[in-house]
Design brief:
single chain; 207 residues; mainly alpha
Length: 207
């Protein structure tokens, strides 16, 4: 819950600090929190049950995930810090956050980034709970099925809440602020690809 609230509060504070950006209202903050909670909750539960039967393998999995996220973030060439070494440490912390949920660092449409990230995370979650289900205990308990359903299904409810947030509660879709565009359900593939290339060429903050 604390990680979910921190990510939601970060988005609110970030937009408050940028005068040209639309501000987040109370309903938007609530949807942001619920979306993050429904994504992070099943992931933490998957971590817990996986660790209960494999112990140190969880550290290996998180380490590999962190390295992959760090490489991904480095390719985005962010420019938040005055020196390269500070930027590297900033990216390392951002990659750590990405162990739990996606932390966007560059401006622009994030559809492709979310699809890639959530595909990786969902496969990891499903793999961890599968290992636990078949090898965690010789005698399945009453909680086995609820844990599996939570990890496998609640994640997609979180994605649904995310879609609702972007279509109905994102500030871009409420008021016509200058420099910002309304979020559409369907975007041409060519436009998405061009947008991603433009975003990677600049290290602007993401909102």
């Amino acid at each position: 819950m604390s990680i979910s609230w921190a990510l939601a509060a970060y988005q609110k504070a970030l937009r408050l600090s940028l005068p040209d950006k639309a501000k987040l209202g109370c309903s938007s903050i609530v949807l942001l929190f619920v979306w993050r909670l429904l994504i992070i909750g099943p992931r933490v539960l998957a971590f817990a049950v996986f660790a209960s039967c494999t112990q140190y393998s969880l550290f290996l999995l998180c380490g590999i995930h962190w390295v992959v996220m760090l490489v991904w973030i480095l390719t985005q060439r962010t420019t938040f810090c005055p020196t390269k070494i500070q930027e590297y440490f900033f990216n390392a912390v951002a990659a750590f956050i990405c162990i739990f949920d996606f932390f966007n660092l560059i401006e622009g449409r994030t559809r492709i980034r979310y699809v890639i990230y959530y595909s990786i995370v969902y496969c990891e979650n499903a793999g961890m709970v599968t290992v636990w289900y078949f090898y965690g205990s010789a005698t399945p308990g009453l909680y086995f099925l609820p844990v599996v359903v939570t990890v496998v299904a609640v994640f997609w409810i979180g994605v649904l809440v995310q879609v609702v947030y972007y279509l109905a509660f994102h500030p871009n879709n409420k008021l016509p602020y200058a420099g910002e565009k309304h979020i559409r359900i369907c975007v041409p593939w060519s436009e998405l690809v061009d947008c991603e290339r433009d975003d990677l060429s600049k290290g602007t903050v993401a909102v």
